[in-house]
Amino acid sequence: MAQALAMLKIASSTLEAGQSIAAMVPALRAALRAVPDHERDGSMLLPVEVMNVLVADVLKATIELDESADRCAETTEPMSDEDAAWMGRFWFQVAAGEIRPANC
């Protein structure tokens, strides 16, 4: 986990400097994949701007699906702790490249 966090910090600094992290993405994904499942919990503070880059393709596909879905099914109920933990694990897997859109 320490290696992944160090690499994410470097990527965050790179983005803050206005530079692209495209060349770093494969190494970032590999570092995240190397984190054992038991260390992938909600207490990790991952840089949002880096995560946005790593999840962009799945997020785009999700938004496209949502825009074509029936909005009547939306709810305003708060997310349970269990659902929030599942969502965190899901987006971590996306960032690690373990979940990808079918067309990638």
Rg over CA atoms: 15 Å
Give the helix proportion (percent range): 55-70%
Morphology: globular
Strands, total number: 0
User: Which runs of at least 5 residues are low in confidence (pLDDT < 50)?
Assistant: none
Class derived from helix and strand content = mainly alpha
Q: H/E order of the elements?
A: HHHHH
Largest sheet: none
Work out the helix count. Answer: 5
Give me some keywords for this one:
single chain; 104 residues; mainly alpha; 5 helices; 57% helix; globular
Summarize the structure in words:
With 104 residues, the chain is an all-alpha fold. 57% of the residues lie in helices and 0% in strands. The protein is built from five helices and no strands. The chain has helices spanning 2-16, 25-33, 48-54, 56-68, 81-95. 13% of the residues are buried. The mean pLDDT is 84.
SSE layout:
Elements: H1 2-16, H2 25-33, H3 48-54, H4 56-68, H5 81-95
Helix pairs in contact: 1-2
Please provide a brief summary of the model:
This protein is mostly helical. The chain has helices spanning 2-16, 25-33, 48-54, 56-68, 81-95.
